[in-house]
Amino acid sequence: MGNELVKLIDTTLCTACRGCQVACKQWNEMPGLRTKQTGTYQNPPDLQWNTWTLIRFQEYEDKDKNFTWIFRKDGCMHCTEASCVKVCPSGSLYYTDIKTVGVHHEKCIGCKECISACPFDIPRYNKETEKVTKCDLCYSRIKENLPPACVKSCPTGALTIGPKDEMIKKAYARVEKLGGDANVYGDKFVGGTHVIYVLQFKPEVYDELAKDPKVPQTIALWKSILKPLSLLGAGGVIGGSILHYFIHGPHKPHPEHYDEPKKQGGA
Amino acid sequence: MKNKMVVVTSGYERFVHWALAISCLTLCYTGLGILFKELNFLGVIFGGLKGLVTVHDFMAVIFAISLVLAIAMWWKEAGIFVFPEDWEWIKAAGGYLWHLDHVPETGKYNPGQKAFFLTVALCGLLMVVTGFFMWYPEKLGGDLMDWVYVLHVLGFVVIFAFFFVHLYLGTIGNPGSVSAMISGKMELPVLRMLHPKWVKEMEHEGKLMIANDKK
After folding, report:
1. Does residue A107 fall inside a structural domain?
2. B170-200 confidence digits (pLDDT tens)
3. Whole-number Å distance between alpha carbons of B7 and A240
4. Portion 142-171 of B in contact with A at CB < 8 A
5. pTM metric for this prediction
6. Nearest CA to A153 among A23, A6, A14, A54?
7. N or C: which end of chain A has fewer CB within 10 A?
8. Which of B106, B62, B64 has the alpha carbon at shortest distance from B84?
9. Across the interface, which of B37, B161, B165 has its CB nearest the CB of A89?
10. Strand pairing category for A131-133 and A54-61
């Protein structure tokens, strides 16, 4: 393939059937784990190492007390400027040829740096394998010209995938049709994500959705400044020591430091 | 023997020093391999990058323990500046930058050594604390953790550079001083140059321990 692909999640079409959640587990061979009833249909309660996508259930009342369900499929956004790729020390997280963020699981060392860096709180740590997991947009399927498992399973057309430009155009057309507060989420930050939403309400309405996702500036501070400084500093000291040794010379005792100054025995 | 050898460190001091030194250097080595993708190959001798992390985690514990022991053991001698004598030494840059026949006299540890000790103590504690949270990032949450990584690398910048200062001044920069951390003894003339006041005090109190090897 090689083109830049974007997955569009039209939350207004989602019926929360969770077919995508099941299909994701099936394709990626992720086991089910014992879960907890937390008083909502949302299950499991959050993304987990074995749950890479999750329909978030939210009960919402607008100003006029009109009740509505909000369903949002949560999962990796596949950023163009991905914080996780920037911090990953092992090359486990990488940009694929379709500009999504892939995972080389065998390389992961479980350092958890991506977990702190991700502005969308997506990566999850598996204590048993000591590795981090997340959605890879079914890279193995896309390589075979198949849609991701979640898209394949979606019965309502809430999930679609296609070339970036087309999908963004489609999203804006949909938003125009919906009117009101409807908006496109994802194309404007972190270099543009490769998963974008059509949201019916303003982003701040949605649970667990970053309002202003950014690559943490601290990453540039330690990756671009402190990292090279560690080598420059040590190199400078080594060079300085060598210069000092030859120009100033080492500290040697003064003749009167010896017990018998005349003999000048030592040194 | 040409010069009298003086006992300057105890076996316990040298043990703690080397525990701290070996763990610190191993942490620098493994840390470099983790920090720089280009240096990932440093992990080959430990069976890969994951092995590097395992060694880093293990050595961190040794480092933390020896750091606490080192601070407990040395802070009174090397952790407190004494004015005005230390100030005189600082003004003369310890005789390291221009030639002085007589460097201002200080106690057992000069302000340069004290500054080194304090830097290692503070940066070492910083590394232990930030490193601990890197094991359990969920305890702090993403925003604070972002700064933990910055501080861990900052501590490394300082410690890595200071290590080479320490290496130079403890060996060829001050000939005769390295034996303090090997045999625990130093030649009396070298001591008179580097720690004149301490030698005088110890002589005055009759505590100067001359090693009695084949007189």
Report:
1. yes
2. 999 999 889 999 999 999 888 888 888 888 8
3. 31
4. 142, 145-150, 153-154, 156-158, 160-165, 167-168
5. 0.89
6. A23
7. N
8. B106
9. B37
10. unpaired
